[in-house]
Amino acid sequence: MTAVSTAPDTVVRSSRLPELPRSRATLLLLSGTAVLSLVLIFTTVDPWLDQAGMLVGGFDVHVYRDGAWKIVHHHPLYTEQTHRGLYYTYTPFSTLIFLPILAVPWAAVTNTFLVLNLCVLYVCVLLCWRVLGYRLTGRLALISALLTLTCAFLEPVRSTLYYGQINLVLMGLVLWGFSRAPGSRLRGIGVGLAAGIKLVPLFFVAQFVVLRQWRAAVVASITFGATIVVAAAVLRSDSRQYWTHTFFESDRIAPDTMPANQSIRGVIAHITDRQAPVWLWLLIAVPVAIAGLWVAAELNRRGDVLLGVTVAGLTSCAVSPFAWNHHWVWFVPLLIDLVNRAQSQARWWWAAAGLYVAVGAWAYHWNDRWVVTGWFLFPPSWPISPILLNCYVIVYAVILGCLITRILRTRPVSKSAAT
Fold first, then answer.
1. How many CA atoms does the CB half-sphere of 113 hold within 13 Å?
2. How far is CA 213 from CA 14, 76, 185, 227, 360, in A?
């Protein structure tokens, strides 16, 4: 249940937006979940444990920093190794975005980006409420802060915070675009910029097309094209290397069989224990992408704009050639949507609790020095290991299946059919 009518051609002035219903029970419950999440984060894993503790991460943000350092010092971006022997995999344009990281002292990069990501997570939560149609108030800001702390325990979010990943920033850009009025000239810019940094958000251009929001689709495409042109003008050699070679090296990221590959292609690899055949992946992923876009369009038509963009975000993860576990930060707006529905129907609290359990950063201690978080990294010897290993895709399949069933059951009957 959304706060206001959010039909595609409806524009609601900010001063007329309703407030989130006042509920002491909601405030107490979210206060409890916020405290619970903080306790779990800092007690299930020693925060200073090497390669696992929340306060000693920053692996990926240092890769970003090294990428920015390379272009400043005229080193090849894609053929030389970066932090800890990894190769840079993002677009050339992304390094221009990461240049400000060089201004942060090396020893402070990890904690600086951790704080920045927490702030971005808070902004994402606020944007979710804006897409739902609520007016920003002090109470909503407080509830958003509690939800930010609650969402920090969701495994994709915890991993994004721990590694210093860019996922929350990309999601924020997309949500900002969808928080604009459907006819706004700025609606597609966020998607275009996000795609310019990392290609996966291009999926939302397809969503604009399915929604027949042609202006947004064109603006997003032009913005994405502009990122390529700007990068090519500044980084000619690296851009040529990326778009003619690196872009096609699918094995550059990691083997499909990695447990952290939470995508349809990863499921195939996990089941067969070998690299997934491209034809088989496409045979499954293409229909799933079409189904996801159809569901997102139907939800948008019914006024469930946030749920629609969330489904599109989750679908983009599922059908990607490789989706790291931390890409699934789109569980955050799903949780916000469930909390919103729980304001009018308390049963949705159970759905929110189920999501929290299913995608939480639960820890397994192999020994004192080796601790993992996330169901997909739990012992493969367990009888339910095939389910845990592919948990995010399974959760997505359940969500998509439930939404398809709901849409088909509640589709309006035409007058001709009724007679």
1. 33
2. 22, 39, 11, 22, 35
Residues facing 373 on adjacent strands = 363
Instruction: Calculate helix-pair angle for 189-197, 203-210, nearest 10 degrees.
Output: 150
* Backbone conformation region of residue 84, classed left if phi is above 0, alpha if psi is from -120 to 50, else beta: left
Whose CA is closest to 296, among 407, 166, 133, 371?
Answer: 407
Q: How many CB atoms lie within 10 A of CB 223?
A: 20
**CA 179/CA 189 separation, integer angstroms:** 12
pLDDT digits (tens, 9 = 90+) for 113-155: 999 999 999 999 999 999 999 999 999 999 999 999 999 999 9
The token pair that represents 163 in the structure block: 């590694």
Convert the pLDDT of each residue in 357-385 to its tens digit.
999 999 999 998 999 999 999 999 999 99
Q: Please report which helix (H) or strand (E) contains residue 85, including its range.
A: none
Q: Which residue has the tokens 């984060």?
A: 41
| Contact of 259 with 270, CB cutoff 8 Å | yes
Q: Which residues of 55-91 are buried (b: 16+ CB within 10 A; e: fewer)?
A: ebbbbbbbbbbbbbbbbeeeeebbeeebbeebebbbb
> What CA–CA distance (Å, rounded) separates 244 from 246?
7
| Cα distances (Å, whole numbers) of residue 45 to 40, 80, 334 | 8, 34, 26
Model confidence, pTM: 0.93
| CA 157 and chain centroid, separation | 9
